[in-house]
Structures are given as structure tokens and as C-alpha cells.
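Hi there,

I know you've been waiting on this one. I reran it after we fixed the sequence typo, so this is the corrected version. Both the input and the resulting structure follow.
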Amino acid sequence: MLVKLLYKPFGIIAGIIGGLLSRRLFDAVWGLVDDREPPTATTKRATWPKVLGAAAAQGLTFSVTRAAIDRAGAKSFEHVTGAWPGEKESDPAGDAK
């Protein structure tokens, strides 16, 4: 319990860094698709495929970047403190779903 509490500030900082990195990564990925700004759901002259593609690319880059940053933060925290800040194993019941 104490380890998770001590990890909280590291997790918050990692989340901020992850958000910034994921935005830059998404911009780079979208730049390969189109030279215009990525459309949002309310962009009138955007096609369905572009709107959904932009949303999918944004979700993917955000999730992958966040997972990588969270994992690196947990590994670094363990390296410094010797304690893992999260679960030791995944839930076997959750894996069967």
C-alpha cells in the first residue's frame, strides 16, 4: 500500500509526459496519412473514413505511448526502490475472458 502511495507522484509525471509524447507521435502518424489537420467528429467536410481513421490512430498512439511510459516508469521505480508499484501478476480470471 505504501509503495503505491509513493509511486503516485511518479505516475502523475509519467502521465503528463506520456500525453505530450502521444500527441507528437499522433501528429507524426497522421502526417503520413494526410497533410491537413486531423479531422474531429464535428468537422463538416471530413469523410467518415478520415474521421474514424483519425480517431483510431489517436486512440492507438495514445494507448501504446501510455503503456510504454507507464511500464518504463514502473521499471525505473523498481530499479530505484526495489519495490514493484503495481500487480505482480495479471489476474488469471481476467485472462480467461
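Quick highlight: Residues 11-28+40-82 form one domain.

Best,
R. S.
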